[in-house]
Amino acid sequence: MIRVLLADDQILVRAGFRALLAAQPDIDVVAEAADGEQALKAVREHRPDVVLMDIRMPLLDGLAATRRITEDPALAEVKVVMLTTFELDEYVFEAIRGGASGFLVKDTEPEELLRAVRAVVDGDALLSPGVTRRLIAEFAARSKEPAPASVLAELTEREREVMALVGIGLSNEEIARRLVVSPLTAKTHVSRTMVKLGARDRAQLVVLAYESGLVRPGWLG
Q1: Residue 62: inside a domain, yes or no?
Q2: Start and end of every Response regulatory domain (predicted)?
Q3: What domain range includes position 68?
Q4: What is the Cα–Cα distance from 12 to 9, expressed in whole angstroms?
């Protein structure tokens, strides 16, 4: 079972998400929270697999709550998907930098929400359609002089190649076509790269690709 925690200050929103998720045979809603402080307490108590976290909440907003979750080694297995009413680029950037594994607008289709929950549990990053390229462009625009590439020393040449392709926004299927390998092989390379670098998920791998200098601004073709 995939254990999910709902964090949103609107009770009707939580009720709608709970009804959708609870109807799935592989998903269990273990707790709800109405603000960021409640969310942190509930995460520590229930250790869910996925937190659906609203960005705008009282006491402690979703971005700050997410940073506290992802910075806590004891909660390393908890994945956070950010939810908001608008696809605002600054929110996307801060959410992924803060360790979120995904970002969805609240009016997304039910099937997309369910796919998001299952995808992040499998270690994939999930962003609303149209966000990924803008996110990468934002990293490019904000990137400073890259850090020393010593962080990449443990990677094989193929793993660096795969990481660079992840960094420019390609999916496993697109990477497989580019390298003429199977999607399973591409996924294996991505997974091994994340393990070696200690990346929580694919989204953090994108951050590391830019910060290490493996991907540079302008490599968006």
Answers
A1: yes
A2: 3-121
A3: 2-122
A4: 9
User: Which is higher by pLDDT, 147 or 169?
Assistant: 169
Average pLDDT on 191-205 reads 83
Per the domain annotation, does 56 fall within a domain? yes
Cα within 13 Å of Cα(95), Cβ side: 32
Task: Report, as an integer, the average pLDDT of 185-189.
Answer: 92
> Do residues 117 and 154 both lie within one domain?
no
Q: Would residue 140 count as lying in a domain?
A: no
**Where does the chain have alpha helices with state H?**
11-22, 36-46, 62-70, 89-97, 110-121, 131-142, 157-167, 172-179, 183-197, 202-211
Q: Give helix then strand counts, H and E, for the chain.
A: 10, 6
The domain that holds 159 is classified in CATH as: 1.10.10.10
Q: Are residues 110 and 181 in the same domain?
A: no
Question: Strand, helix or coil at 51?
Answer: strand
CA distances from 136 to 21, 75, 128, 142, 144 (A): 30, 27, 14, 10, 14
- Report residue 153's pLDDT band, with 50, 70 and 90 as the boundaries: confident
- Shortest CA distance to 142 belongs to which of 202, 62, 82, 216? 216
| pLDDT above 50 for 221 | no
pTM of the model: 0.66
Number of structural domains in the chain? 2
